[in-house]
Model the fold of this input.
Amino acid sequence: MKQYQNAWQAVWRRIDESAAQCGRNVNEIALLAVSKQFPPEAVRRLYALGQRRFGENYVQEARDKQQALADLDGLWWALTGPLQRNKATLAARIFDRIETVDTLALAERLSAARPDDRPPLEVLIQVNISGEPQKSGVMPEAAVTLAGQIAPLPRLRWCGFMGIAAATDEVPEQRRQFALLRRCQTQARAAGLPADVLSMGMSGDLDAAIAEGSTEVRIGSALFGPRPG
Done:
């Protein structure tokens, strides 16, 4: 338990310090604990410390984990990995947020599959801010147009953008890429779209992401340690 407590506290100290350095209110920044490939017991350990928001990359793994943790109240789940269209129906039923929407067709499928008795499914548009061909997401210049198409869909609540920077230790380059996502938010708001969420920043670059306006950092290894295998 001490391992998780130390890691969780260290991550929050880093978030606090990064927010203070750029004059931001730390309460504007959410911590999403990315628990993919870790067992339900790891989620329980962080839950006991007060963590409630968890991210998973795989739909079936998330479903199994949720079933194993059904006794815990208040868990909130986000899908942070690419979503195949054939998994969209299940994803729409079990997640609170999908962070990797990059086509109107996928959003429409999620909209149709979201149960009426659940709150609207939050969705983020994934933007390819690194420009790497292997990365998912729409290009920055297409993001606001897609947001305008998704926002009116029933049973969904579009609330912002998600991006993954290239793997680099160069802070100016990290910030340049994150600034692209912040620009999408500015443009969306100018178009009358409520882009409240900027999900950007992971264990290696959360400081640069917070400096550029991140409202959610997605942290895995800094909380849970190296991934199994």
User: Anything to note?
Assistant: The longest strand covers residues 156-163. The chain has nine helices and eight strands. The two ends are 22 Å apart (CA to CA).
